[in-house]
Amino acid sequence: MAKAPASPKRAPRKSPAKKPPAKSAARKSAAPAAPNRERPAEPDRYTASKDELLEYYRQMLLIRRFEEKAGQLYGLGLIGGFCHLYIGQEAVAVGLQSALDNDKDSVITGYRDHGHMLAYGLDPKVIMAELTGRAAGIAQGKGGSMHMFSVEKRFYGGHGIVGAQVPLGSGLAFAHKYRGDGGVCLAYFGDGAANQGQVYEAFNMAELWKLPIIFVIENNQYAMGTSVNRSSAEDQLYRRGESFRIPGLQINGMDVLEVRGAAEVALDWVRSGKGPILLELKTYRYRGHSMSDPAKYRSREEVQSVREKSDPIEAIKKELEAAGVSAEDMKATDKEIKAIVAEAADFAESSPEPHPDELYTDVLVEQY
Ligand SMILES: Cc1ncc(C[n+]2csc(CCOP(=O)(O)OP(=O)(O)O)c2C)c(N)n1
Ligand SMILES: [Mg+2]
């Protein structure tokens, strides 16, 4: 893999900013500022067995079909509040989480969280029940789409404050180190969140204390209606850790095997005590920011073109075909997944809402 070219000397931006130069989507790694600083290995595209490929396909399809169903239930008024869908970004959560040790590693993310929970092996029924505000939901129906949580599975949310999960994730990583439990925290955040000040305070402490954390920027190109090029002075987000001596890698987040390969390198780096690492996953969301987004800031053609050229599920179908899996078998898996999702929706719709007595429970840890 080619090394990223050294950062060009930039003229100061004039105001109003000129049209940004075209960006290469190729995988890159941050050029080291100091020549003798250790760098992570260049990731290889992961070589998956047929069973692993099938598992990635199943998981990505589960997320896609689950999210499509969530969109329908939202339209029917069965899901209230905000609902941010993950369609298009499936390869990121599936590729990264496939490499984690579910017995010790922890995960934290923002409000676009259903896909991460599914990739982490949480039951689609309790996630759908949470979306529809039912007592059987993972947060007893009181958290909804943005505030899902499972202490048991070390999935720490689900956060609505943009960027807040980054210092919280550093705290989780601190706990892993303090307890010596060998765990690593995966802290996901968006391209928009990457411009939050608290992110950089967290970077500083994480590197100073060599915390076991992987900072994952899911660069889906937009923060609500603002494209990354319009909002970011340095839009090569994998470089954002450089001034904290945190190495960064830029990865094609539409290819689950590239993502898994990067996960291996990142986990090796962090587990060997070298401190944090930053991954920028270049991806794309097909749907609006949330269900209430009219998406006027981009053209239908743009979305269509990404779907046609780089859809992560279509890509893995090609891998499966090459591994000898027939089109019929793939269709059968799709049918099976649709049944799982339909069952989750039926379960959610037929579950009771929380009892009014539950209004004041689970608000504070302490009793007053
Ligand atoms: C501190 C804070 N500022 C602003 C908002 C409003 N807001 C919600 S989502 C969002 C965009 C974040 O975009 P990005 O980080 O790229 O994540 P994505 O939605 O693309 O997954 C903004 C500005 C908020 N929730 N919290
Ligand atoms: Mg974004």
TrEMBL record:
Start and end residues of each stretch annotated as Disordered: 1-47
Subunit structure: Heterodimer of an alpha and a beta chain.
Gene coding for it: pdhA
Start-end of Basic and acidic residues biased regions: 36-47
UniProt-listed Gene3D superfamilies: 3.40.50.970
Cofactor(s) required, per the database record: thiamine diphosphate
Catalytic activity: N(6)-[(R)-lipoyl]-L-lysyl-[protein] + pyruvate + H(+) = N(6)-[(R)-S(8)-acetyldihydrolipoyl]-L-lysyl-[protein] + CO2
Stated name of the protein: Pyruvate dehydrogenase E1 component subunit alpha
Keywords annotated in UniProt: Oxidoreductase, Pyruvate, Thiamine pyrophosphate
GO function term, MF aspect, one: pyruvate dehydrogenase (acetyl-transferring) activity
Biased composition (Low complexity): 22-35
Pfam families: E1_dh
Purpose: The pyruvate dehydrogenase complex catalyzes the overall conversion of pyruvate to acetyl-CoA and CO(2). It contains multiple copies of three enzymatic components: pyruvate dehydrogenase (E1), dihydrolipoamide acetyltransferase (E2) and lipoamide dehydrogenase (E3).
Boundaries of every Dehydrogenase E1 component domain copy: 59-356
Start-end of Basic residues biased regions: 10-21
